[in-house]
Amino acid sequence: MIQKIRKDMLTAAEKQDFEKAASLRDKFFSFQKITEKQVVVSTDFVDRDVISIARDSQYSLVLVLIIREGVVLGIHQYSLKDVISSDSEIIGAFLRHFYASSHYIPDEIIIPVIMEDAGFYEKWLRELGRKKINIIRPHRGDKAKLLHMAFKNAENRLMELAADQEAKNDLLMKLHRSLKLIRYPRRIECFDNSGISGKQLVAGQIVYLDGHPLKSSYRRYSIKTVDTQDDYACMEEILTRRFKSSSSAESFPDLLMVDGGKGQLNIAVSVLKKLGMNHRLDVISIAKGEKKNGEAQDKIYKPERVNPINLMGRNDVLLFLQQVRDEAHRYSITFHRHKRAKASLKSFLDGIPGIGRKRKMLLLKHFPSINDIKKASADEMKNLPGMNQSAANSIREALSKMT
Fold first, then answer.
1. Domain end position, chosen among 143, 178, 213
2. Less Cβ around it within 10 Å: N or C end of the chain?
3. What is the total count of domains within the chain?
4. Domain range holding 219?
């Protein structure tokens, strides 16, 4: 790859395309700097990916060594839990997932198993990469050594993953005992509201599974029934929407957390009672300690208990709950800022001649905020579907009048 960049750089210079040559020069020196720090693992300088898999009773870990011109430039790993598929099926699924969105496909892919449908994948990859690509399973020689290197890396990382999960399991068991929970808190959901003066009110729901954030299950809510800064009413709405829509017990959390004090906790309990779910899960709230009252620690409240739970000596439990709460806060406030930026952009576009409903929706979809539209050139806006030079100029003119 690095030699190809050098060749393209020299060609661009010969054609007096100095801007392209300068860009390729920077890229060449960047790659050169990286490779100087790396160890050469093959001497044929072929671009290849080496894929291996390691498994235990819980996890399957797929690891890829990214080798370019004989040097390991990176390592990617992907873990799956409770998978019953064969190694061949896992590798096939990985090939489809990894290379479908890849910007570059190497000349050779080394795999740890013999795949009956390797020819199908070679044809598919050839169409994607527009060149011949070989998928091989070596049994001896230097390529087999590369496969062994990848496997040892996968084994080591699988052991680290297992150790990390064991530590998380111990922490969750300590949380279970410390808070005297009815259920083991395998799935935790935490909710937080965000908004300013009743404007763009939103909420965020984050999920932790087995002690780790499960971002695919995060959910954002735009508040529909509240137009004032009423945290209790917002909490009631989102919890009702969350649990009223649940169709099976499998989707329920073991532990529900809400950001706030006893007031927010009471709202959560009230919603669950109305829906007949108050005995299906544990509920807690977490509130910031009031420094003016000399409260150094955050406070954890449970239903039917006047005072917060004393977690002295169990800092790891408190830190974990704070981490979950902080993630919910980060997620909700990010959504709020996004909505506020969209509202600001929408308001700005409303007064521009030549920007009707369709163009406004197009621009709102393409640009997250006014700052993003400020960075865009008139040509970039003009080339959007449904836009033209006149409309783009109108926007640039309106931007020039902003202070």
1. 178
2. C
3. 4
4. 187-338
Could you tell me the CA-to-CA distances from 387 to 343, 384, 391 in Å, in that order?
Answer: 21, 6, 6
User: Tokens representing 164?
Assistant: 């990390």
C-alpha–C-alpha distance, residues 244 and 239, integer Å: 8
Residues 225 and 275 in one domain: yes
In 18-140, which residue ranges form alpha helices assigned H by DSSP? 18-36, 87-100, 118-129
Let me know if residue 345 belongs to a domain.
Answer: no
The predicted model scores a pTM of: 0.71
How do the pLDDT tens digits run along the chain, 403 residues long?
Answer: 556 676 777 777 776 666 677 777 766 666 555 555 556 677 788 899 999 999 998 899 999 999 988 888 889 999 988 888 999 999 999 999 999 988 899 999 999 999 999 999 999 999 998 899 999 999 999 999 999 999 999 999 999 999 999 999 999 999 999 999 999 999 999 999 886 655 678 899 999 999 999 999 999 998 888 877 788 999 999 999 999 876 555 578 999 999 999 999 999 999 999 998 888 899 999 998 766 665 668 899 999 888 899 887 788 999 999 999 999 999 998 887 777 666 666 666 776 776 777 777 777 777 777 777 777 777 777 778 878 887 777 777 777 766 5
Q: Which residues contact 393 (CB under 8 A, 6 or more apart)?
A: 378
Residue 346 lies in a domain: no
DSSP per-residue codes, 40-72 = B--SS---EEEEEEEE-SSEEEEEEEEEETTEE
Question: For the CA atoms of the chain, what is the radius of gyration?
Answer: 28
Whole-angstrom Cα distance, residue 171 to residue 258?
20
On whether both 311 and 374 belong to a single domain, the answer is: no
- Cβ atoms of 109 and 124 closer than 8 Å: no
Retrieve residue 16's tokens. 């007096």
**What is the distance between the alpha carbons of residues 188 and 284, in angstroms, rounded to a whole number?**
11
